[in-house]
Design a protein that fits this description.
heterodimer; A: mainly beta; 4 helices; 9 strands; 12% helix; globular; B: alpha/beta; FAD/NAD(P)-binding domain; seven-stranded mixed sheet; five-stranded parallel sheet; 29% helix
Amino acid sequence: MIEKNGIAAIELYKQEFPEDENTLLKPKAIIECYKEIPCNPCETSCPFDAIHVGEDINARPQIDFDKCTGCGICAYSCPGLAISIRALDKESDKAEMKFPYEFIPRPTKGQMINIVDRAGKKLTKGKVLNVIDKPRQNKTALIHIEMDKKYLYDAATVEVII
Amino acid sequence: MQEKEVIIVGAGPAGLMAAYKILEAGANVTLIDRNRNLGGQLIKQTHKFFGSEKQYASKRGIDIMNILIDKIKAYEDRLEILNETSVVGMYKDKVIACLKGDTFFKLKGKSIIVATGASEKSIPFENNDLPGVYAAGAVQTLMNEYGVKPGDKVVMVGSGNIGLIVSYQLLQAGVKVKALVEAAPKISGYLVHASKIQRLGVDIKTSTSIKKAIGKDSVEKVEIWDLDPTWQGIEGSEQILDVDTVCISVGLAPLTELMQQLGAEVRYIKELGGNVPVIDARYQTTVKGVYACGDVVGIEEASSAMVEGKITGLNVLEDLGYNVLDSRQALKAYHEELKFLRDGPHASKVRSGYLKRGMLT
């Protein structure tokens, strides 16, 4: 239970995904911000006006998947590291995810890496497709990984490389 | 004795922001801090801040510190910085006694702003005086300000934002965080911070507390146990954790000693962290011309402290007769900012504290 251990239950995080899985044939931001906190950089950073928080910055963000391009700006702007970008590949059995990463060393492109779920349990191995680490991200890298389609919902991050 | 226009005690987020507002309007500021670096706790805040753009959300605390320092240093001709200087006395005629190294001196201010912040609380348990038992903020200072690793395997006690954030920063420093224990049945900090460390393998255990630290010369192990609904430890539920470091993060207490010495009225408001100075809506204490803002008037986030600093700065300028353009509108907007920062479910304690204070804005 999220309020006891920080682990969102499957019913909770599935709600944050588009209802129609085909929407994810294009990358979309999945926002896992389950409790009201005074915070709105997701809204103000989005160049496509796809995320709405509103005047009361305690409101939970609402995303418009039609407007979201999956660019990833919100994912490195969110102070809670609560946003990931997820997509399904049209032609293969792969899913892709971009998520914020603030550890050194960074993973390297092409590396096989352990993917974990929201409880930190190892799920599978995935391939690092890219590491996006531009100065404007201010040290929050985005790691772009590819994994088996069946982990689209359960993947949370990767094991920290030591 | 030197007379100063505005003396600010404490150069954290509240003090720096107050200094900026006052300097911007053309007044003179003497900014005093006991540390070598300005910025208070901002220097060790390596994470991105919450809030809105008005409070520099999404910027890291240490970057916000540099922004604020740059802002005040633009007025170098009217700014006097007394760092590594402790204010050891404060009197009703607005005279303060300072100690810098071995040098003792007194200053008098037309207005004084007390922005001394807070200190960390602790909890009693067997062997809590063993080396290896730290306050979480102290660990953050060691790691992020001085580059010193506090230990190799840590148990964090307390799930407020500081406990959650310092756990994350320990992981970033390559330290193992074996568990985070929280006596309450629910996580008290932001859930996004909790989820962030849980997915990196930190076991968060609610309704659990530390029973004792074990070790000869320093912490070698720690015993934790489950708590029943009346917060009593359950015999037989003990578990041993193999750790060399205990981080205590069980809340902060406002640093009100100077206020008490001054004779300003102080009131115990549990929800605000303990003894806090009585202030009016202008952040003036019961001693005319002495103001207080930031964590010293109630434990909140740095974002609120910065807004309070702005409000206090404008009110002090008004006392001193400076005509600040659109001051009224600005004050209204700042109070509105505070209202939103104090509006969510996480700020319910602060809200009831301000209700008791009779100044819920």
